[in-house]
Amino acid sequence: MALQITSSRQGRRGLNRQGPCGILRIPISCENNSMTSSRASIETVARRVIISGQVQGVGFRYGLAELARSLNISGWCRNLKDGRVEAWIQGPQGAINALLEWIHQGPPEAIVQHVDIENQAVLEPMLGESIQTFEIRR
What is the enclosing helix (H) or strand (E) of 85? Predict the structure, then answer.
């Protein structure tokens, strides 16, 4: 499954990706009709995310994990007993922003009602605190 950059007539660019949860469209910010990169997009950040709504039993965690892995984001996600989904994500700012945009919509069967996002400290490999991949926790 490959990522593909697309552009619409309005000059918007994005990534289209076909996965088990349908086509994922991830907009990419553009300036003067060209893709931009900035220091902020390569800076590593970490976020804790709590997603509320109809987000369990609809493939939310699997779609989230698949997209996170394709964007080289590390972390984990899990179902909470109260029906919400919790995720801890770490990666480049631009990739995190793209993943957060998808989280606000979720897979086709999901109904996302609310998303809480908290800034977190970046885990440092030198301190023995690191997550190398994205996993689904039970």
Answer: strand 85-92
Verify whether residue 79 is a known catalytic residue. Answer: yes
| Residue range(s) defining the domain that contains residue 66 | 4-136
Domain count, the chain: 1
Q: Which of 47, 79, 97, 119 is catalytic?
A: 79
What is the DSSP-derived secondary structure letter of residue 32? T
pLDDT tens per residue across span 47-69 = 999 999 999 999 999 999 999 99
33 carries an active-site annotation: no
pLDDT digits (tens, 9 = 90+) for 89-131: 999 999 999 999 999 999 999 999 999 999 998 887 655 556 6
Kindly name the residue from 61, 72, 97, 119 that is annotated as catalytic.
Answer: 61
CATH of the domain at 12: 3.30.70.100
